[in-house]
Amino acid sequence: MIKVGIVGGTGYTGVELLRLLAAHPAVELSVITSRAETGIAVADFFPNLRGHIDLAFTAPDSAALAVCDVVFFATPNGIAMTQARELLAAGVRVIDLAADFRLRDVTTWQRWYGSTDVKHACPELLQEAVYGLPEVNRAALRTARLVANPGCYPTAVQLGLLPLVEQGLVDIKHLIANAASGISGAGRKAEVGTLFSERAEQFRAYAASGHRHLPEIMQGLAQAAGQDVGLTFVPHYLPIVRGIHATLYGILNDKGLNLQEIYEKRYASEPFVDVLPAGAHPETRSVKGANTCRLAVHRPQEGDTVVVLSVIDNLVKGAAGQAVQNMNIMFNQHETTGLNAIALLP
Q1: Which residue from 77, 238, 93, 101 is spatially nearest to 156, judged by alpha carbons?
Q2: How many Cα atoms occupy the beta-carbon half-sphere of 176 within 13 Å?
Q3: DSSP label at 98?
Q4: Taking the domains of the chain in order of start, what are their residue ranges?
Q5: Suppose 310 and one of 44, 160, 256, 280 were both cysteines; which one would form an S-S bond, judging by CB atoms 3.0 to 4.6 Å apart?
Q6: Which class is 152-314 in CATH?
Q7: How far is CA 290 from the centre of its chain?
């Protein structure tokens, strides 16, 4: 059994991680920490877990976490980097669901996630951390000590564009990604902007001048392309709880390509990427609760523009599900173990 610890298990990502791990046949949940909810039974805090998890939240304790095989950080940005070095030294493998280790360049990290008062606590680990997109880094994940779980927008956008960028099929200097996320992507904290009356019955863009997921997406696409890319990324709020829909645009270098065949071939062996038939339009509800990215590729009016549609559940393939997928690879489990749930409909 894989002894698992979770730091920060009280947010939406945390409860999704608990839901998946509680049903995983090779996992023993050992420690679940929360400073604010110490002593409260997990099943009292999250009633959907009644009968599945008997643990109570405990205060973060290095000694208790050190007996685990792997520790997941389902915490805000800036927490994992303060504890990762100590856990790694104790032989514990770490999967961070926040952004502390996603960016390799500390200066870039500082610009998007730091401040005059907050510096990266262990910049020497940025180069070691393996970016946890299995469809790209599966081999490196098998031996990784430290995994940076991708962000939700970056997962949807990269999986949608990879087949084009890897083979140089589009103008990589002029890519566009319009992506929209459900409200749970903002986390569980109480804020006026996430109130039902503020988000319901409306659709709007935000952070159009620069979102912190932009450098992560560009880093991944640049690795795939072997050179820097140009990307315009505009995120939007959707008045739904779960789901991301990304509409991606590129200018084709060759209009004679069989794009459907290219996408089907690229993802033929990927258990969690589903390329839909030609002409399809994936729906966010088709991936709700599932660790699946569904893609469709179009070439409107047979022109030189390619349009890729990508949908994921931001809490599953965009966060907790992908983290479990990474754990499976790291611990020589079948990659799909504990992740075969069918999407909820309606």
Answers
A1: 238
A2: 10
A3: S
A4: 2-128, 152-314
A5: 160
A6: alpha beta
A7: 13
What pLDDT is stored for residue 190 in this prediction?
A: 72
Q: Where is average pLDDT lowest: 27-31, 191-195, 219-223, 332-336?
A: 191-195
Write the DSSP assignment of 260-280 as a string of letters. Answer: HHHHHHHTTT-TTEEEPPTT-
Amino acid of residue 1: M
Contact yes or no for 295/310 (Cβ under 8 A): yes
Tokens of 105: 């360049």
Q: What is the pLDDT of residue 199?
A: 82
User: Which top CATH class is 2-128?
Assistant: alpha beta
Using an 8 Å Cβ cutoff, are 314 and 243 in contact? yes
User: The pTM is what?
Assistant: 0.96
Residue 128 has pLDDT above 80, yes or no: yes
Burial 131-142 (b: 16+ CB within 10 A, else e): bbbbbbbbeebe
Non-local (6+) Cβ contacts of 42 within 8 A are: 9, 18, 32, 49, 53, 54, 55, 56, 57
Mean per-residue pLDDT over the chain, rounded = 96
Binned at pLDDT 50, 70 and 90, residue 293 comes out as: very high
Q: Which amino acid is at 304?
A: D
Active-site residue identified among 68, 122, 152, 293: 152
Q: How many angstroms from the chain centroid is the CA of residue 310?
A: 14
Report, as an integer, the average pLDDT of 258-262.
98
Nearest 5°: phi and psi at 241?
A: -80, -50
Give the integer Cα–Cα distance in Å for 250 and 317: 24
Instruction: Give the pLDDT score at 198.
Output: 84
The pair of three-digit structure tokens given for residue 178, joined into one six-digit string: 């319009």
Residue type present at position 333: Q
Rounded to an integer, the average pLDDT of 184-194 is: 79
Known catalytic residue: 68? no
Do 335 and 326 contact (CB within 8 A), yes or no?
Answer: no
The pLDDT, as a whole number, for residue 341 is 93
Site of tokens 């829909």: 245
